[in-house]
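Q: Convert this sequence to structure tokens.
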Amino acid sequence: MSTATPDLETVQLSNGLTCDIPASSPLAKLLKSKRTWVGPSAKDRLKILQEAKTVAIVGASPNPARSSYFVATYLQQSSDYELYFVNPNADEILGQKVYKTLADLPVVPDIVDVFRRASDIPAVMDEAIAIGAKTVWVQLGIWNEDAAYYGEEKGLTVVMDRCLKVEHARFHGGLHLLGFDTGQITSRKTLR
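A:
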């Protein structure tokens, strides 16, 4: 009985070492993507979250099954941010008015949190620049390296492929499901 071995690919790591990994693995795909853009450090992301007062969620959905709805619910319940929802196809989300575009907002948001396809990110960057926003935060799983460089060239702080909810929870000691270490030291007692 023979067992087929997956096609292996030799990859060179940034430290100069090489290793063989299955060519179809997610890691191989990531390494092939040749990502060169690097966003703000954890310390810088924490500062962004601490200084922000307002968050506009572009691509917010009234559908509770969508990640933007889940993030909005979390932010409503677990943060002091003033939230604004942007979606040209909705009127109300979580009991709040929804705006058609960023330009329609009554304030300039500190963070523009984006739930749109990667190909839509440059247009959102342009809208954010036009209204004077300072930070565009592109959600987990969404990557457009050219847009990140473009946004930075235009003076934006860009965070990409990171979930605002996860980052907020991590920095505020709220990411402890299943016992994962949050890196937070606390004197809070856990309920048993």
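Strands lie at 8-12, 18-22, 54-58, 82-86, 92-93, 96-99, 111-114, 135-138, 157-159.
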